[in-house]
Design brief:
The chain is an alpha/beta fold. 44% of the residues lie in helices and 16% in strands. It starts with a strand and ends in a 9-residue tail after the last helix. Keywords: Membrane, Transferase, Transmembrane, Transmembrane helix. This is Glycosyltransferase family 2 protein. It comes from Spirosoma sordidisoli.
């Protein structure tokens, strides 16, 4: 039995996986591990490319684009290690992080899962990454960009305080290590999620099994948006902060964890905002002596996003099992 099973989900990123695995093999020692890649119907030669360099990789095909949760669950079912790591293809190790994480799980049975801090491609700490449920929930509310408004929202959706500063409420699925017996108790990733939000919801259930730790002085490189040509996030604005799939998934998480009331408050918040942001922008146009309907693309994009949310309204409100893919 290997010490660790590394599970990587692939969707048309063979070069990223090769780079990731080169960093794994370069920096990892003191433990045995296996690598499992689950392919989401890439429709290319990903398997041939990866196994030409790493023939020992175990490869599984989902047969369709199953997203993050379902593909990882298949990998978990195939894993034979005494610990399991979910690892994004667009990550790079810089030291013997995997052995350190396995050792924590071995030595601290009260710890349910461990993760590490994320660095950008410039090897600088990526700022403002969420580690609490309150941080995530506050990001969904579009409020005036003032300190007073932010303080008001934080009082209503506060963050917890833990004796151990390394303890968090959830760990990013880009790098999350746990044990098979912990997964057996908590359950696998919720397969209603296509992408995004599933690691937040899973963190809630994993947290019931023990502490979740973001290890101090431990980090990995996360080449987020690494498969894009310019390595840039999509342009965001104050009212359009997330891609539709991100927010549909996160709304599903809110419904599952906090109930229908919390979900309905958010939906009502968004619907109410539509006339407010249109009228506000038109008032600015008049004040600046611009055409009344000038530069409303941002507002139209928000209204379109809300329309997408509403397509999933009843299944989400009723918490119906399904596949919440935009």
């Amino acid at each position: 039995m290997p010490d660790l099973s590394i599970i990587i989900v692939n969707y048309k990123t063979p070069r990223l996986i090769i780079d990731c695995l080169q960093s794994v093999y370069q920096h990892t020692n003191g433990i045995t591990f296996e690598v499992i890649v689950v392919d989401n119907q890439s429709g290319d030669d990903s398997q041939a490319q990866v196994q030409a360099v790493f023939p020992q990789v175990r490869w599984y095909d989902m047969g369709y684009n199953a997203g993050f949760a379902r593909a990882n669950n298949l990998g978990i079912r195939q894993a034979t290690g005494r610990t399991v790591l979910l690892l994004n293809s667009d990550t790079l190790l810089i030291d013997n992080l995997l052995e350190r994480c396995v050792r924590v799980l071995d030595q601290q049975p009260d710890v349910a899962a461990v993760g590490a801090h994320q660095l950008g491609r410039d090897r600088q700490l990526r700022p403002n990454l969420y580690t609490t449920f309150g941080q995530m929930r506050r990001a969904f509310y579009i409020i005036p960009p003032t300190q007073a408004a932010e303080n008001w929202l934080k009082r209503r959706l506060p963050d917890p305080s833990f004796p151990d500063p390394a303890q968090v409420e959830w760990i990013s699925g880009a790098f999350l290590m746990t044990r098979p017996d912990t997964i057996a108790r908590a359950g696998g990733l919720d397969e209603s999620f296509f992408m995004y939000g599933e690691d937040v919801e899973w963190g809630y259930r994993l947290g019931k099994q023990g502490r979740l730790l973001l290890l101090p002085d431990s980090a990995f490189i996360h080449l987020e948006y690494g498969s894009s040509t310019d390595h840039q996030q999509h342009v965001v604005t104050h009212i359009n902060r997330f891609k539709p799939q991100v927010q549909v998934s996160q709304l599903l998480w809110v419904r599952k964890q906090y109930g229908p009331g919390a979900y309905l408050v958010l939906i009502l918040h968004y619907i109410t905002l539509i006339p407010i942001i249109f009228l506000g922008k038109m008032a600015i146009n008049l004040r600046q002596r611009q055409p009344l309907l000038a530069d409303l693309d941002n507002q139209r994009a928000f209204a379109q996003q809300v329309g997408i949310f509403l397509q999933f309204f009843w299944p989400t409100l009723l918490n119906k099992p399904g596949f919440y893919k935009v």
